Amino acid sequence: MSGERIYLDYAATTPPDPRVLEAMLPYMTEHFGNPNSIHSFGRKARLAIDEAREKIAYLLNCQPSEIVFTSGGTESDNLALRGVAEAYRQKGNHIVTTTIEHHAVLRTCKALEDIGFSVTYLPVDEHGLVSPEQFAEAINERTILVSIMHANNEIGTIEPIAEIVKAVKEKRPEIIVHTDAVQTVGHIPVDIQELGVDLLSFSAHKFYGPKGVGGLFVRKGVRLLPQITGGGQERNRRSGTENVAGIVGMAKALEIAVKEMPTELPKLQSLRDELIAGVLRVITDSRLNGHPTQRLPHNANFSFRGIEGEVLLLQLDMNGIAASSGSACSSGSLEPSHVLLALGLDYELAIGSLRLTLGRFTTREHILRVLDLLPDIVERLRALNRSFKA
Ligand code: PLP
Questions:
Q1: pLDDT in the model for residue 389
Q2: Backbone torsions φ then ψ of 115, nearest 5 degrees
Q3: Which of 245, 293, 367, 373 could serve as 27's disulfide partner, Cβ 3.0–4.6 Å?
Q4: 176-180 and 143-147 strand pairing
Q5: Residue range 79-97: average pLDDT?
């Protein structure tokens, strides 16, 4: 094993960029004031939050007053769904979403079902795409909210958000549309006005910012019942003393990501394509999960028949490669990913999955090392499984 560890799990989290840490540090040292305090310490912190809000709003193309800072993607999704559901309860109780959403959306929908909301979970095609027509058909006179992820965190498929919003609004303009853009903000161009959504979730640690900070775009005029009450921060939409350093870091991270996207995106796309082509060429009985072209530039998700993803991950880790699989080990049995099952994969392919996600610090040498190691590991595990069954 070569000494260098190779990180290929950028969709789980990204390493904070050193420039982000540098921007944050003063707000954890000399500028430690509470932004709600009236004195100069407080005003310094308040100014930093205001500037960060303006920067993020400019980069996402919305008004600064439409950004609510939260503790991350999970909280943003919860605030969007629960906040709207509770605020519009008198207008209706129906929500439309898809079967491949992140658990931050799916489990929140389940919780809303428990208190009387009715949720339609739309199926996806074999690439993970859902169509605008499906949404138009699913809407009824009780529908108040639609929630559809911008790109899927496991398979990288990018959904046609603008077309979905158009189809929904054509039918009933008053329906509120939320998108979970946690996997796209900072990775592909995200323009809120082009997408046309009313609510959009994002999270700093997915684009080289710190963990525990994120945001929710809330279009002017959309009502939300706050889920965290207290001092009335964030215009009464999310109470709690603001995470000043985190917010400053998130704005810096987004600024860097947007600035470097024109060079970073094609670089990642080309490395990813080399990886995909290499894996599919060399490993028999392998398949690419997700859309062949309409996918995140840094995502590759494979299934290999005859192995278990978790075991593959451990083997890769022992060889210095950090990756992810869709399956999660719970109470000793392998649970296949709900996303892969929704694509129509059988159990064996769904548990034999491997997600490799590339990022800012990925090099061609990393990809070549994976292509060098992976075929042998897969073959060894397959042979082992065969001998167990024999
Ligand atoms: N939504 C999606 C699509 C995600 O990929 C994630 C993180 O994995 C989340 C929501 C949750 O974000 P956070 O980790 O900031 O709570």
A1: 78
A2: -110, 25
A3: 245
A4: parallel
A5: 98
Residue that finishes a domain, picked among 223, 256, 289: 256
Report the atom number in ligand 1 closest to the C-alpha of 149: 3
Which candidate, 208, 155, 258, places its Cα nearest to that of 360?
208
User: What total number of domains does the chain contain?
Assistant: 2
Q: How much is the mean pLDDT over the chain? A: 96
Cα 352 to ligand 1 centroid, rounded to whole Å? 23
Question: Which residue, chain included where needed, has tokens 């075991």?
Answer: 311
Domain boundary among 213, 229, 256: 256
For residue 182 and ligand 1, the question of a CB distance below 6 A is answered with: yes
Cβ of 326 below 6 Å from ligand 1: no
Residue 120, phi then psi, degrees to nearest 5: -100, 125
For the chain, what is the radius of gyration of the CA atoms? 22
User: Mean pLDDT lowest for which of 180-189, 205-214, 323-332?
Assistant: 323-332
Nearest CA to ligand 1 atom 14: 73
Cut 0.85: pTM above it: yes
Domain of 68, CATH number, reads 3.40.640.10
Mean per-residue pLDDT for 101-107? 97
pLDDT digits (tens, 9 = 90+) for 352-377: 999 999 999 999 999 999 999 999 99
- 327 pLDDT tier (thresholds 50, 70, 90): low
Distance CA 178, CA 197 (A): 6
% helix, strand, coil for the chain, step of 5: 45, 15, 40
Across the range 104-111, mean pLDDT stands at 98
Query: Backbone phi, then psi, for 303, in 5-degree steps?
Result: -125, 140
Are residue 23 and residue 136 in the same domain, yes or no? yes
**Ligand 1, atom 10, residue with closest C-alpha:** 73
Which domain does 296 fall in, by range?
Answer: 6-14+261-389
Domain shared by 356 and 246, yes or no: no
